[in-house]
Inverse folding.
């Protein structure tokens, strides 16, 4: 879009969708950019449906626990916090008073929520309202994940995210070895937010990068279903947010 | 404890419990320091049970959304992140290789988790392992909260937290007016992490500071039950963590 | 690519290309993302030629002087500096010892060069070597720009950059009004690096966003020529750098 | 206090007392938290006398020179500066226009005074006025210290501070060995502010953590006298400050 | 000196003298650069006597309380802290293991001491030892100040500092009006470190910039005496420090 | 000048000249402070001609690539950026609405330009306008450099800068060995801004600190010519800037 087109857009809508992913290993067959692709592809589909601007995807984010795997790029959470904060404030200055963040990487949540606190604190009533959602935050999406893969969905390098990129980017690498290794539900809980450990331990625990997942189950057909389910849920949520 | 006593302690245990609260309004009858007291009192009870050092409570934390209420003190999330990070690193340098953070304020979670990322990233394998738990993260505790107050527990200035401080600090102010106002479950979801809004809006939405809660239901007797339930769950969780 | 494929790549090449653009107004017919697209499209073409990994494009960068135009997003130079620094260091930790930055936005240069200083200072001999080049840094490219547009190339929202995006992304908006306004060469010199002024003044000086340029001259055919000339020069330069 | 009570308090007083201590070794018989306890106990006594709010104690502060002793926790001076600054600003936003800092740890002074500069610089005439006093800044207190211990008071882990905690917290550990070692007055001068040295040297110079002090002389009775003398001086000083 | 000469110097001495001043009003007849000149001139005299390198003077420092007077330049204390810290660390990396800071501006002390803490904390045993002294820290100097001016020496824009610059730089402006105004000793105590107030109040309290001083008493002859007394004391102190 | 004199000055001129140099090796016969002296001496000469205030010289700046040579002092680019930014903002607050930066060290440019971006972004229309010029940015000066030394001028520790300090400070050390070593023009291009390398490599490439220069050609007579040519060009440029 040109600057003039953005000016026109802002006359009828205060909303923008910001996809946020990561660059990190996703097991033997998942792409480094899996999260970035998932966020971007879903956001693009949503943007078309709801007539929303989709901003360029944030790809470089915190991912220290995967730094023992080649290709992962990680920035400090506090650096990402400041960068994200600056971007959101700049959206706000331009009149985007509703910023919908579509996230695809768990470790982004903490710095983005911390940034949200500081944006509200510094800009006060002039701050753009933020809504931060991961594409798996919706019941319909999770039902589908469970239906397709059950407990083999796992926590990282899941067949769901791999399937989405297989569908959107036509890159299927299931021919590569990808051995499933179950992990206890206690272990999963410990690692889903409150007890990630340093990179070296992480690779020791999960040598091939899959965390309780069996990414070889992914197919482009599944990806299509997941993409559409996610886009539908996000679209509904975006509209409720932007018109609130 | 003296420095010598800490030296001895570290020979048999790498663990320390760090309570983290806040200073913010808790409705008409809750204390400004409710969160700090809850975290500190539960931690002290746990420390006695499991022979763990309980470090002094962190009270000054991010609470921008309550800044329209007198007595709330809020620090920027990024400032708290750096301060928390410095403290944990210093624990680590002293040999505390297991730091159990007992939290009592939702807005602390994001900056503490972001800090955890950076501690692991900077210290690597020398980093102390962190476990961040809020006292309401346990099934037993939540069952009790529901049993006692049902949906009138609400989200902020809940009768549970008020009850705990009534029991531990013998300060009962239920004679003050405290009118319950229900909020929709959608509203609760929006405000529990992903769509807090700036301070002025927050007070407009919740004029007396209660967010869907009815703190007047609190009694010291409830507080005793809650305190003990929380301490029991935390003690079990701490032992699993510190011996892992 | 998967993590395993990156691991293999690093066995035979230490190089990576990082495109860096911006999100800012580019006059009446240029896209907000013109710089990001130019950097990304040229880098992609180069990557195919020289077998180099092309990392995702950095789009959110300093652009304060265009903040009076809708759609521009600007982050503080010091925030971008830290973010860029973190990314380069992470590349270095992963074994990318030659990072070729392909730039398409003048205001990026200062913070990236400042970051380069600090990366070398902090990582010393372990730092990845950086080469920062803008796509217009090459004689062949500039000869073509002059041949095509003469002095109507101007300084910002130039027909060259618009032409490239017309070719690569098939978006032609020359039907929109785009009035050329010459500026003195002294004025151009003042604004090319050492005396940019604040956003309000900037828009007052350049009401339609063109700085001495006549972007309506752009055609997709020119874009193809420019893209290829730039990619050829960059490819040669990249190979010299990565094998040095 | 509840938020309503704070609101009422601010109608008649702009003052708050903020105790600031440290967590660091205090020799063979002094507690890690000696400074925090001294500041808190004196402040509490003062608060009761002069009807002032006493805020929670800041315990985690710069103490690098004692990091070779177990149990010391130290944060960087610049991190503490920012945290302290954020707290004071938040007090100011809430209407506390007179913040009296009661200090008990020498190394806190520099970062707090530096923060004061920046608070005044950034908030200007809206800044709360700060008064930073250590409990030993008063003639009456020092006369008593000299009377009780003469030159054996020393510089760190002094019998005075140990005595205060013995009285307030009923923890007497004089049975532990605590050998007095005199240091020259020149040495004391060098170490009282302008030439602290790194942690390893510090422990080499003062192997048991006492710096020219004989903490074994402490008794709870002395503690009571010192506590009361300090509280009386501080109360007078607070009233002069808050009503100025 | 050339780099080769510094290399030789470091073979026989680890010391360097760093003068630190300020740019701020010094009353009706004192120069903006009075502090910078005092520090530099004394340091130069000392350097000649004791064969020490004198580094260039730091002139831009925190001086917010004088910002209501034209010509004052002030940087935030936290920014000065980081800059000073970087300089000292760089001296340390070059082998200057004894850095003697000769100060001439009270507000520099807090950030420099805070920086010292962090330098020792981060560099540990490799940190250069710092000694921070103001030129008025010596008994001989103070005796002379009292002898010459008694209580009219005051706190800021003192005749002593003015006299030194009159002697060293041959700039005598006593013909300008400079009305003495006594301030109570209580007032002086409040303003000497622990209760500076914001710039606007400061000028309201001290309309002509003199704080209890009568700078018109200054003469170049006094300046010579003061300069020599200060240089003698500093030289002795430097030698004790550098050879310790 | 006194504060009153600055007040008067600001009534007729908004301009100030800020010289910025460095402390770094300048080959076998150049002084560590060559850049600082060049900037300061030229600025002083200009100041006298155009009736402009010349502020004290900034000497401590980024110079990591010369840290392998004794006597170089380097601060991180990001730290220098913040310090420079604070100084310029303070000039702006005092009414200096035109700040002319006279630079003499290439590595200063990036952080100063980045700071300029942020100053404009944060202060907006109230920001002082900045003009950043190096003394070699003028055609007349460069013609003279070429005339005097041809390609032996080189890139660092050039005879020109050495000559200026020989003239201004009467320090001539040409008797020291200074062997000229030509470098290819490609090499020079790589090192003039976009591919500086870490300090250890830098010294390996340029063992005696000269980068393609033959500083032994310097004479005080050349220095006088260069000083005057630079001052003349700068004076003209300053007047155009300050009256624009």
């Amino acid at each position: 879009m040109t600057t003039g087109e953005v000016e026109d857009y802002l006359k009828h809508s205060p909303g923008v969708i910001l996809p946020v992913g990561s660059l990190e290993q996703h097991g033997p067959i998942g792409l480094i950019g899996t999260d970035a692709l998932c966020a971007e592809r879903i956001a693009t589909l949503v943007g078309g449906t709801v007539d929303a601007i989709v901003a360029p995807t944030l790809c470089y984010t915190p991912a220290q626990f995967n730094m023992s795997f080649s290709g992962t790029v990680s920035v400090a959470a506090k650096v990402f916090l400041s960068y994200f904060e600056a971007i959101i404030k700049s959206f706000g200055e331009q009149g985007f008073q509703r910023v919908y963040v579509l996230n695809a990487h768990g470790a982004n949540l903490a710095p983005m929520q911390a940034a949200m606190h500081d944006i509200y604190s510094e800009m006060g009533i002039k701050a753009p309202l933020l809504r931060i959602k991961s594409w798996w935050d919706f019941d319909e999406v999770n039902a589908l994940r469970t239906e397709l893969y059950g407990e083999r969905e796992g926590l990282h390098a899941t067949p769901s995210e791999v399937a989405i990129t297989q569908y959107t980017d036509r890159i299927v690498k299931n021919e590569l070895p990808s051995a499933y290794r179950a992990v206890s539900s206690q272990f999963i809980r410990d690692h889903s937010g409150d007890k990630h450990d340093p990179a070296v331990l992480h690779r020791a625990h999960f040598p091939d990068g899959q965390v309780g997942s069996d990414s070889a189950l992914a197919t482009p057909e599944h990806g299509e279903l997941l993409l559409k389910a996610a886009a539908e849920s996000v679209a509904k949520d975006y509209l409720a947010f932007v018109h609130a």
About this structure: Chain F touches chain E through 48 residues (CB under 8 Å). The mean pLDDT of chain F is 93.
